Amino acid sequence: MKKQEIGIDLEEVGRFRKMPYQGNVSFYEKIFTDREIKYCLAKSNPYQHFAARFAAKEAAVKALGKSVYEAKNIEVVNSKDGKPELRIKGVKGRALVSLTHSGEYAAAIVLWQN
What confidence tens digit (pLDDT) does each residue in 41-95 have? Predict the structure, then answer.
């Protein structure tokens, strides 16, 4: 039988909006992959997307049960049909992820199967 774990996280979009990408590049590069940054900056409101991806990384850490994990080892990518997927370096298993965001909040839930 597969082991399953779940994690959820909620982030304030304003946390990222208060730190614009321009002028805080090193902050974003510590947390997000180049592909994630490119994706978010292509959107009209990139900070909703940054917050959602950060929430996914936090939810993944909760599902995996790891207290410390390098954020860039967890990447949110979009599949060919546009669904978000998680890629986690060095961890076996499969992560299902769902993202949502509004003007002020972003959330993610991760179901980890191993």
Answer: 999 999 999 999 999 999 999 998 775 477 888 999 998 898 999 988 888 888 8
Could you state, in order of their start, the residue ranges of all structural domains in the chain? Answer: 4-113
Give the global pTM: 0.92
**CATH fold for domain 4-113:** Ribosomal Protein L22; Chain A (3.90.470)
CB environment 42-75: b (16+ within 10 A), e (fewer) = eeeebbbbbbbbbbbbbbbbbbbeeeebebeebb
| Total number of residues shown for the chain | 114
- Mind telling me the catalytic residues? 62, 101
